[in-house]
Amino acid sequence: MKKGFVYFMMGVLLILSACGGGSNASSSSGDKQKVVIGYFPNLNHAPAMIAKEKQMYENQLGDDVEVEYRTFPDGSAFMTALATGEIQGGLVGPGPAMNNFISGVDVTVVASSSTGGTVIVSREDSGIKTVEDIKGKTFISPRVGCTHDVQFETYMKKLGITSDRTGGTMKHVTGKPAQYTTMFEKGDVDVATAPEPWASVLEAEVGANVVVDSDEISFGKTLPAAVFVTSSDMIKNDPELIQNLIDAHKESVEFINENPEEAIDITIKSIDEITGQKLDHDVMESAWARTDFVYDIDQEAIQAFGDSSYDLQFLKEKPDFTGFVDKSFINK
After folding, report:
1. Torsions phi, psi of 190, nearest 5?
2. Is the pLDDT confidence value at 269 over 50?
3. 144, 263, 274, 296: least CB-packed within 10 angstroms?
C-alpha cells in the first residue's frame, strides 16, 4: 500500500469523524432506510447482478428498506466509498479489502462470491507463447497491487521474473479490463492479467493467446476472486440487516449454480448496461467455465495471499488478518 493512499484514507476517516459521518445505512425519503450495494461489471461479481435482477436483496430486507446499487471501476474507488459510508457493503476483490484492512480501514469480509476467473493472456502478435517469453514485455492489470496483479506477479516471481516496480524487467501499466481489447489492438500492451469475462473477450475478439489459465495461476483454485464486505460498525449496529444481505447473497449464488443459462443471460445484460459492451453467449460460457461461484471463505488462502503481497513489496509489513473474516453470517 502506498503511503499517499494510506494518508488519504486516514484523512477521509478523520473528516468523517469530525462531520459525524459513519458507515451506517443512510436515511432516505420518508421513513425508509437506504442501503447501497456496490459491485463491479466483472463475471466474479455476477451474484450481485443476479440478486439485483431478481430483487433478492429487496425481498430479504423488506418494504421498509430502499436498496440502491452502485458500480465501480476498481477496488480503490469501492473501498473509499465503503470508508465514507456511501455504500454499506458489496463485492470487491480480496486484494483491495486486505490492503485497506491492514491500513486500519474498517472492513470485514462476511462471504465469498467466487473463485477462479483470473487468466493471463498475450497479444496475438506479441510473440509470447510461454511465461518465459513475458520477460521484458509490458503487462496490464486493473490496478497496482490488485488481486489479479498479485496473482500474476506471485506466479512470475517463482520463475525469477519480476516487474520494473521492484527492479525487474516486466513493465507494468494499469487500465480498465473493458478497455483491454482496444489496448491490444493498438499494441500498447503485450500481456493482460484479465478477470473474466474479459479474458474470453480478448480470445474471441483479438485472438489473444492464453499463457496461464485460471486453474494454473497462483491462488487460482482457493482464493476468493471476489468477497462480500461490510464494516464492523454495520455488523455491530445492525447485524439483522447484514444477515439479510448475506441471505440474499447466498440465495443468488445458489441460483447461479442451479440455473447457469439464465444466470449467464442476466450477467450479459447487466455488463452491457454498465459498460456498453454486449458479450456473446459463447464468450460468456467460456468465461463461466473458469469460474466457481461459492459463498464460503478459505481463510488460509487469504493469509497466504497477504503474505505474498508482502513478499512482492506491495505491503510494508507482513499482514495479520485476525478479525478480517466473519463467517458467522454464512453459517446461519
Report:
1. -100, -35
2. yes
3. 296
11-20, 81-90, 303-312: the lowest-pLDDT one: 11-20
Q: Mean of the per-residue pLDDT values for the chain?
A: 90
Q: Characterize the bridge pairing of strands 138-141 and 108-116.
A: unpaired
CB 113 within 8 A of CB 45: yes
Q: What ranges do the domains of the chain cover? A: 28-116+223-311, 118-212
**CB 119 within 8 Å of CB 210:** yes
b/e burial code for range 279-291 (CB count within 10 A of at least 16 → b): beeebbebbbebb
313: left (phi over 0), alpha (psi -120 to 50) or beta: left
What nine digits make up the cell of 126?
506479441
Does the domain at residues 28-116+223-311 carry the CATH identifier 3.40.50.300?
Answer: no
Residue with cell 493512499: 5
Question: What distance in Å separates the CA atoms of residue 34 and residue 29, rounded to the nearest whole number?
Answer: 9
Q: What pLDDT, on a 0 to 100 scale, did the predictor assign at position 8?
A: 41
Residue linked to cell 484523512: 11
Mark residue 138 as left, alpha or beta (left: phi above 0; alpha: psi -120 to 50; beta: remaining): beta
Q: Please choose, from the candidates 26, 41, 19, 54, the residue with its C-alpha nearest in 3D space to the C-alpha of residue 272.
A: 41
Residue 287 has pLDDT above 90, yes or no: yes
